[in-house]
Amino acid sequence: MRRFGLGGRAGEAPPDDPLAWLDAQTRGLPSPLPPPKGWEHQPSLAEVMTVWADGDAAMPFPPGRRHPGAILMSAQRAAWLENLLTAAEPVRERLVLLWTNHLTVSIRAGRGAGMMLGSYLCDAVRPNVTGRFEDLLVAAVMHPAMLYYLDQTASIGPDSPYGRRSRRGLNENLAREVLELHTLSPASGYTQADVTEFARLLTGWTVERARDPVGTVFRPQWHQPGRKTILGKTFEEGPEAAEAALRWLGTHPATYRHLALRMARHMVADEPPPEVVAHIEHVLADTGGDLGEATRAIFRLPAIEAEPLAKLRSPEDYVIAVLRAGGWTDPRPVLGWIRQLGQLPWVAPQPNGWPDTGAAWAGPEPMMRRLDFSYDIAGRMSHLDPMALLDTAAGPLARPETVEAVRTAGSKRDALSLVLASPEMQRR
Amino acid sequence: MNPSHLPSLGRTRLGRRGFLLGLSTFAVAGRTSLALAALPAAGDRRLVVVLLRGAMDGLHAVVPYGDAAYAELRQEIALPEPGEEGGVLDCGGFFGLNPALTRLHEGYAEGIVLPIHAVAGGLRSRSHFDAQDYLERGSEQRLSSGWLNRAISAMEPDEGESLTGLSVGLDLPLLLRGRQRIGMWAPPQPVRPAPDLYARMHSLLHEDPVLGPAVEDGLRERGYADGMLPSAERNGPRGFVALASAAGRLLAADDGPRVAAIELGGWDTHAAQAARMTPVLAQLDAGLGELRAQLGAAWAHTAVLCVTEFGRTARVNGNSGTDHGTGGVAFLLGGPVQGGRILADWPGLGQDRLFENRDLQPTRDLRAVAKGLLRDHMRLPDAAVAAAFPDSEGVTPQGGLIRRAA
């Protein structure tokens, strides 16, 4: 439960049947997210495009005024974090975080990706984390956010009508990262020629901002003519090839191997035992890439019970877990706290997303910031009972030395700080 | 100057911090300094590695304007020749530095900047992540430590006593991960607990194999840095220039760290390269200038190596950018560096000269450069150089990087 959720919430009783509680969150569809501030519903892609275009038309802004697109993006991210603080299905949200990171889109790449990211997470990733991976892959890769993020909107078939006229050409970025990060991984042995061929296959798919219907569109005059062959598999010319190739890649044995490692690393251990990875890989292969089945198989691994608290929480996980344990619901300072600890949600530095190992997060200075954060938050949660907080956070996993340290702390704030800084709180 | 939230760490007062870290034996033994780096092997010599993440385009940083094929390959992103408006800064009639690199060009004229061209690591991969891991590990084996950490192991015989290595910023790069513990510094945040609470937190965490050492090194390094840096700098601007400045200040001290790593991203210029790369180059140039300024007299003993995971395609792509390539550029600079020349076996950019008909052909192994520095600048024994770069027997350390007198 601790491994797979987001951390216990103050005043919430643990479920009577943990396995049933876990399984239930891997079936069906998630409940909708709360709308961003200033909206009564999740803005549609078309509405976001309108905000973006209106904002661009009103530029430049006087000092102190922000682009309305940037304001909307901030509101969407705040709503996202607020949902993590109170989510009734924390296990499902963890899966969303895992697959969002596997299929990273970062607003670092500019306004296009940033504006589309809210819709990407709500429409492409969140509903697909317990279904078949190929569906998740197609939804994510063909979403405008990803097309912007990995420069697909700037990739032109060199021999397409537009390519010949403009002398513009391929941009390999999306093709390369799909093969390397999202599906096969380099261990599968694809070559530069496969990357280039896949980039040619994807040409024509881009984002339409101005004319209806806005969003992902296919422009035949950008499409590289001819058949394309990736790892020996041939695809015909035309718009259908992109989805066909993604589905083929999404169900490839090398992809299952890669996904199994990714899932095991996130939910079992930084260096998961090979037999665990192999087991998950088999489940994926036997079920046509059913992520729900694979997740439920992980819930049942003996390794989970055998090694509690095997995973160090990332800064985002840690801040969310601390705030859930303390019953905190104000989303406004959350982003700043996570950022202080070395991670800025929605702004992963590179397409491979955030690291998923303890060593990557446990640098000395970031660790000191966790201690400082504990102390800061303890000051804001002075109404809490330290022992009750420890019970919420760690339950039966609380170590005697932590109990003793909390009991003998010099002040209530110190006691709360110690709970929040403890290994029980920093791990899951 | 010493903030109230941490005990004093001056050269004569161990006090609470030593106790806190379980180092009280030092105080009992009457040591007057925490000796962050008593380094019999390294002495005064300092090494800074700047990781340029995202693959810097070497052909845009150090431009081979004298190569007849350059202008045709680069089209609209080709830079003008020296003397023309926006032209490159000449380095000997064939190469020129990008005009954003003014300080580096001054250093070149002084003879202390050595651009290295057509260079690449030993791995042929166009994946950022594989190539960065390789660049930092220094080996194709999936080691969990970086070559710089292994090199420090050879410099620091008294393990645990001092922190020779320093990472500046909030990430500890793979380059510096490993058995040898590394200090870190990043601009601090305001709210901090009292020393006593730090001590209690430390005792709660110290048995955790991951959290324990991190907290211990964090306490140690923070106490050290707080004593070293004036508060204005501690609360100053962020970004590469600020980090490079802080690194210079920390490295300059007699008892400071001797080896540091800093990162600068923003090089993955798939589109609109001319506009996107200029500010990053300018940041690099300004940061290196600030590093030199803060090092002061210690600059005479410092070598700075700037490396990137690979170069970019020789041809401009369809978006006025470049894609992942192979051969690229490294910069070596510093007081002892034998610069003022370009180190390159130039492969040429003409037809059939390109690697896989696409990238600058690498003619020099980056490991040779790093091994040469470890041997001739840090004066590591051959065995230690070999341990830093396993399975590289065939790669001879590059000689002539460092002036003999230094």
Note down, in words, how this protein is organized.
The complex is a heterodimer of chains A (428) and B (406). Helix content of chain A is 54%, strand content 3%. Chain A has 428 residues and is mostly helical. Chain A has a two-stranded antiparallel sheet with strand order 1-2. In chain A, a hairpin with a 2-residue loop joins strand 3 (228-230) and strand 4 (233-235). Chain B is an alpha/beta fold and 406 residues long. Chain B folds into two domains: 18-190 and 238-388, Alkaline Phosphatase, subunit A; 191-234, no CATH class. Chain B contains 14 helices and eleven strands. Chain B has helices at 15-20, 24-28, 58-61, 70-74, 102-110, 128-137, 147-155, 195-205, 211-228, 231-234, 239-252, 273-295, 366-376, 382-388, and strands at 46-52, 62-63, 89-91, 95-97, 113-120, 165-168, 183-185, 259-264, 302-308, 328-333, 364-365. In chain B, the strands form two sheets. An eight-stranded mixed sheet of chain B has the order 7-6-8-1-9-10-5-11. In chain B, strands 2-4-3 form a three-stranded antiparallel sheet. Chain B is globular. At the A-B interface, helix 9, helix 18, helix 19, helix 21 and helix 22 of A face helix 6, strand 7, helix 8 and helix 9 of B.
Topology:
The complex is a heterodimer of chains A (428) and B (406).
Chain A lengths: L17 H7 L20 H13 L10 H19 L3 H13 L8 H15 L7 H9 L2 H6 L11 H6 L6 H10 L9 H11 L2 E4 L6 E4 L9 E3 L2 E3 L4 H11 L2 H15 L6 H13 L4 H9 L2 H5 L8 H11 L8 H7 L17 H4 L2 H17 L5 H9 L5 H8 L4 H10 L1 H4 L2
Antiparallel strand pairs in A: 1-2, 3-4
Helix pairs in contact in A: 3-5, 3-16, 6-11, 9-10, 12-13, 13-14, 16-17, 19-22, 20-22, 21-22
Chain B lengths: L14 H6 L3 H5 L17 E7 L5 H4 E2 L6 H5 L14 E3 L3 E3 L4 H9 L2 E8 L7 H10 L9 H9 L9 E4 L14 E3 L9 H11 L5 H18 L2 H4 L4 H14 L6 E6 L8 H23 L6 E7 L19 E6 L30 E2 H11 L5 H7 L18
Parallel strand pairs in B: 1-8, 1-9, 5-11, 6-7, 6-8
Antiparallel strand pairs in B: 2-4, 3-4, 5-10, 9-10
